[in-house]
Design brief:
about 120 residues, mainly alpha, 4 helices, about 0% strand
Length: about 120
Amino acid sequence: MYSDAKKVIDFAGASPATLGLESQTQLETLVESWLVQITDGINRDRNRDFSAEEEVPPIIDNIALRMAVNMIRSAERQRTGSVVKFDATEDSLPVADARIFTDSIRRDLMRVPRKPAVRITRG
């Protein structure tokens, strides 16, 4: 698993109450389950398992951390049912992004080479 639940929680400033949970243990368990999903997504995207290699590149841990924070933010928005109010004096309306693989994360992930897929051809 990439990153660490406690690092994610600290970075996000999350608490059990913000996600409707009763304990820190429940929050850590939830974030760990998300990190397992995120790790699988990164491995599938890059066609490789970085944890099976000699050392996980720090950028992979950073990407996993940011994706997990995105999951926390998405869960907070779902829980609160928050909506963005439009102010007629504003030129633009900020919209919350529910994507986990954001454009910036995808750009950073592209810096880490994929392993080529094995293709067998018959002649």
